[in-house]
Amino acid sequence: MKRWILLALLFAVAVALSLLLGVRHLTPSDVWQAVTAPDPRNPAHVTLLTIRLPRLAGGLIAGAALGLAGTVMQSLTRNPLADPGILGVNAGAALAVVLGALLLGRADNGIVTVLAFPGAALASVAVFLPGGGLSGDAGPVRLTLAGAALNALLISAVSAIVQFRGEALDILRFWIAGSLASAAERPVAAMSLVALCGAVLALAIAPRLEVLSLGGSLARGLGTRPGIVQAQALLAVTALTGAAVAIAGPIGFLGLMVPPLARRVAGHSLRLELAASVALGAAILLLADTAGRLIFPPAEVRAGIMTALLGGPIFILIARRLKPGAQG
Amino acid sequence: MKRVIVLVALLVVATAASLLIGDVNLGLGALWQGVWGGDGPAALTIRVIRAPRVAVALGAGAALGLSGATLQTLLRNPLAAPDIMGFTSGAGLAILVAITVGLTLPLPLVSAAGGLVAAILVVALAHRPGRATPAATVVLVGLGIGFTTTAIGTFLMTRLPSAGATEAQRWLTGSLAARDWGHACQIWGIGAVLALLLALQVRGLGLLELGNDLAAGLGLRVERTRWMLAATAVALSAAGVAVAGPVPFVALMAGPLGTRMTGAQRPGTRLTSAAAAGAGVMLLADLVARAGIPGLQLPIGVMTGALGAPYLLWRLSREIERGEL
Amino acid sequence: MTEMTLRAEALTLGYGERRVIDDLSLALPAARMTTILGPNGCGKSTLLRAFARLIRPQAGVVTLCGEDIHGQDTRALARRIAILPQAPLAPEGISVGDLVKRGRAPWRGLLSPWSRADAEACAGALQAVGMTEHQERRLDELSGGQRQRAWLALVLAQGTPLLLLDEPTTWLDLTHQLEVLSLLRQRNRDAGTTVVSVLHDINLAARFSDHLILLGPGGLVAEGTPEVVVTTENLQRAFRLAARIQPDPVTDRPMVIPL
Predict the structure, then answer these.
(1) Residues B196, C61: Cα–Cα separation, whole Å
(2) How far apart are CA B66 and CA B194, in angstroms?
(3) Angle formed by the axes of helices B51-75 and B135-157, to 10°?
(4) Residue C28 host element (H or E)
(5) Tally of CB atoms within 10 A around B13
(6) Which end of chain B has the smaller Cβ count within 10 Å, N or C?
(7) Chain A neighbors (3+ CB pairs < 8 Å)
């Protein structure tokens, strides 16, 4: 119980900091007035309503979705190194969007929304098949490397296309490391619906995923059909990751960091773990985003770069703890 | 023997093609003139622009290939290449940092330092006292080092002005653009010294292949030999990075590709064919990257990324079938 | 010929905190076949590895001709002591001939070419294990018994007066176990090579060895000829095994029949 309270506190702090801190620091009373009696001539109110709040909404949805996707993936693959960013699912969505923009010549919200999902779906299937994920007993090395390979391939393609278009390097940076800066222009409302569907699906199949983690043959003996559960889990991952990419671009390593922390809060029930992942994912992404705004004002460091800076060392920490037997 | 000839012929053809094909396609006559000191624009294009670039590609590819094959043999893992384990991105990051802060040290030294620091970090972090370190852990920790250095590199890039960022992007993906004869002399000179050093250790490598115990029983100082070999391999990959940037996947592919092409079995011939294969892959990837899509010059790193990733995926799925990983 | 005797003096071995062998002193008689026996985890392999200077003692010394082996040049020592570990690693696709050639490493300098003596040693080793006609074949195509003979050829080519083997018969069927042990005894009788091996099978050890070293959970239980070592009382102490001992009807050596 104590840990749930800590988690709630962390979440509240993350939300508050994300609203208050930035190029222009606001006070809690500014926030209160902006919500209760908005004054369009007060710059503080304008900042809050047109920049901070949409950014907060985007961060909440993208962070929660990526946290959930990470927990589902790690449970599905029994691999503590699984993460939509590391395994190339983010990059798949990014490539689909960039490719669509190249072929159709426009990059509006409709394109981004429609294309991110098939991209994420294709990439997750592509990494799970050669990675041996679907047999349910892939070693972490194999799956992680398959993901790294896929990621490298997709990112090569993204940067080739962006260079082909002769666009500024800035766009490339966006599609390699995501950011919440333009969340206001993204279809946050629609994506939150998609993410909600993914979350409901994940919660629904959680008990069957738990059974599956005992191994394919035992799960079959307990009356589960592994193939169907895996397909459902991949569908959930696709919906969640696609929604996050459509809002914030590819943000890596959140799915890596969230599940081990969520397990500490929730113990060994996957449903509770998923619930904790929602709050943790959102909190970590908001904190990363806020920190990125504060490091070199007025310039911003993208949230995706901040999570990668944090995630690399955490990846190493988890990798060296793996038992040799689990790497076979 | 026949397969060795095929590999050599392939290298010669790739070299000639790289000299002739580009924004302006040249004929064999121009190649002749260029080699023998003619001074038409075509001859100059070959001598001043393309030949040094080809020489750098061959040298850097061979160095990366040697490095990859040595580490793969040493760790007995086909995935233990300096590019997978983050050594090359460490070297690339060091160069990026040096350029950013305006350090005036020679780049090969900077890159060697970066590669060595990355390698030492990988070994130190993968090691857990009182337990044997599985090669898989080394590979994974190396992957994590790669993620971290890439993140730091991207982070630094955001601090650079736009022009600097373009240059930095080159150093992070790997590129052979604007290489001159100075770069060529650098990689061939340093590469030759390191290759000689490696040649002196080839017999030790052959014994280490039999396992540490048997190698020790055969009179090898196992720990010392392992460290020396690893250091030579890291230095070789850093030498390649210093002229071409952290080109991904060349070191990973060169060893298995070379062995497959020549059927070599002894460590010495395996390393030689890895060097040849590395040089060939690098040259062809560069050729396709700059001439594959008309009017677009891609950095070579994008091309080897696109070539190497499917190879890695195929390799992984094959190891699954054989139940090795 | 100088007496090539390996001797353990007040030897204590272990890994970190865990002590496996405590204050052990014994000698491996020269030009004999010696077998180290004992239950799992009693330190048989550890002791063998200490004799092969693969691990450093925590206390005490291993001496060869009276000199500490850890003070000696490792290559010079490799011309006198050969070790075949339990699970050597085979490079992918290596041929039997190439494998055996690597056994000549301690005799070759940094740049010295392949000499006639090297070629003869390899040919002799292949002949001794009966693998001459298979030397072009790849190791991974061979049967388990043939593969083990190829590894034996490697250490025989090393041309040492002392040969240490860690469980050379594991994974082999009975026929091939007999074959490997006969080969070793042949080498012992023909060349006077001191052969020291770790085995699991007491009956095979008693049949082929001149000298047995029996370790138990508390250290050395007995050493000496098979008749001296293989007794009901010693087996009880080392293995907690109740057994009857009868003479082997073929060789007259002691034979264990568990009760």
Answers:
(1) 39
(2) 10
(3) 140
(4) strand C18-28
(5) 13
(6) N
(7) B
CATH class of segment(s) B60-283+292-321: mainly alpha
Our CA-based measurement puts residue B277 at a distance from the nearest CA of chain A, in whole angstroms, of 20
In DSSP terms, which residues pair with C214 in a beta bridge? C37, C222
Report CB contact under 8 Å: A159, B302.
Answer: yes
B213/C contact by beta carbon, under 8 A: yes
Query: How do beta strands C59-64 and C6-15 pair?
Result: antiparallel
Domain range holding A176?
A: 2-327
- Tell me which amino acid residue C257 is: I
Contact B221/C at CB under 8 A: yes
Chain B contacts of C89, Cβ < 8 Å? 76, 209-211, 214
- Reference B175, options B101, B272, B96; nearest CA is B96
How close, in Å, is residue B321 to chain A by CA atoms? Answer: 10
Give me the pLDDT at residue C205, please. 94
C259 CB within 8 Å of a chain B CB: no
Please choose, from the candidates C230, C225, C200, the residue with its C-alpha nearest in 3D space to the C-alpha of residue C32: C225
Q: Which run of H or E residues covers position A239?
A: helix A226-248
Query: Rounded to whole angstroms, how far apart are CA atoms A144 and A134?
Result: 14
Do A156 and B172 form a contact (C-beta atoms < 8 A)? no
Pick from B79, B141, B306: which is nearest to A153 by CB? B306
Owner of token pair 């003979």 = C149
Instruction: Kindly tell me whether chain B and chain A come into contact, counting contact as 3+ Cβ pairs under 8 Å.
Output: yes
Place of tokens 């509770």: A272
Q: Find the CATH number of the domain harbouring A230.
A: 1.10.3470.10
Put simply, the answer to whether A169 touches B134 (Cβ < 8 Å) is no
Closest by CA position to A125, among listed A228, A226, A217, A237: A237
Specify the range with the lowest mean pLDDT, choosing from B126-140, B185-199, C81-95, C245-259: B126-140
| B265/C82 touch (CB, cutoff 8 Å), yes or no | no
Q: Tokens for B305?
A: 């990324």
Closest by CA to A54, choosing from A175, A179, A242, A180, is A180
Non-local (6+) Cβ contacts of A316 within 8 A are B125, B141, B144, B145, B148
CA distance B210 to C89: 5
The CA angle B266-B267-B272, to the nearest 5 degrees, is: 100
- Could you please state the CATH topology (level 3) that the domain comprising C1-80+165-224 is classified under: Rossmann fold (3.40.50)
C102: contact with B, CB 8 A cutoff: yes
Task: Tell me the C-alpha distance between B290 and B184, whole Å.
Answer: 19
Q: What is the pLDDT of residues A106-132, one digit of tens each?
A: 666 677 777 888 888 888 888 777 555
Angle at CA A135, nearest 5°, toward A140 and B135?
25
B305/A contact by beta carbon, under 8 A: yes
CB atoms within 10 A of CB B7: 18
Q: Do C105 and B76 touch (CB under 8 A)?
A: no
Chain B stretch 132-191, residues whose beta carbon is closer than 8 A to a beta carbon of chain A: 132, 134, 136-137, 139-141, 143-145, 147-152, 154-155, 157-159, 162, 165-166, 169, 173
Cβ pair C163, C155 in contact under 8 A: yes
ipTM: 0.84
| Residues of B in Cβ contact (< 8 Å) with C164 | 217
Please judge whether A305 and B137 are an interchain contact, meaning their C-beta atoms are less than 8 angstroms apart: no
Q: Does residue B196 sit at the C interface (CB-CB below 8 Å)?
A: no
C73-130: per-residue pLDDT in tens?
888 899 999 999 988 888 878 889 989 998 998 888 777 788 899 999 999 999 988 8
Res A173: pLDDT: 62
In the prediction, which pLDDT does A48 show?
A: 83
Q: Tell me, what DSSP letter sits at residue C107?
A: G
- In chain C, where the domains are located: 1-80+165-224, 90-159
Closest CB to B218 among C53, C103, C164: C103
